[in-house]
Amino acid sequence: MIAELSSHSVLVFVGIPVLVVAIVALLVFASSIANGPRYRPGLSWWAPPVWINGPTATRPDPASLPELPELNSAPGTTATAGAGVARTTGGASASW
């Protein structure tokens, strides 16, 4: 025996599940749609650089910087990390 399907039955048993699936899919993909395109391996990088906790946009006045210590070596020699190099040298010595 084949039961007759009314439009109300089709709406309840087909329409509501399709609506629920569509809402769940929209919620799942909403964040990726809102964020836009992302980097794909093999493509060139197109986004601007971001430096988190980097230096401020304003530069200090050079007149207010401390004086650098004089090196006790002969002119023309290269400075080393332990030879009293100024703190602005950076590098592996961690004397930033």
List its traits:
mainly alpha; rod-shaped; 96 residues; single chain
Per the principal axes of the C-alpha atoms, what is the gross shape? rod-shaped
How many strands? 0
Return residue spans where pLDDT drops below 50 for at least 5 consecutive residues: none
Mean pLDDT: 74
Q: Kindly name the structural category.
A: mainly alpha
Helix tally equals 1
SSE string:
H
Q: In this structure, how is the largest beta sheet organized?
A: none
| CA gyration radius, whole angstroms | 33 Å
Strand content: under 5%
Helix content: 25-40%
Give the CA-CA distance, first to last residue. Answer: 86 Å
Q: What does it look like?
A:
The protein is mostly helical and 96 residues long. It is built from one helix and no strands. The chain has one helix spanning 7-35. The chain starts with 6 loop residues before the first helix and ends in a 61-residue tail after the last helix.
In short:
The protein has about 100 residues and is mainly alpha-helical. The chain has one helix at about 5-35.
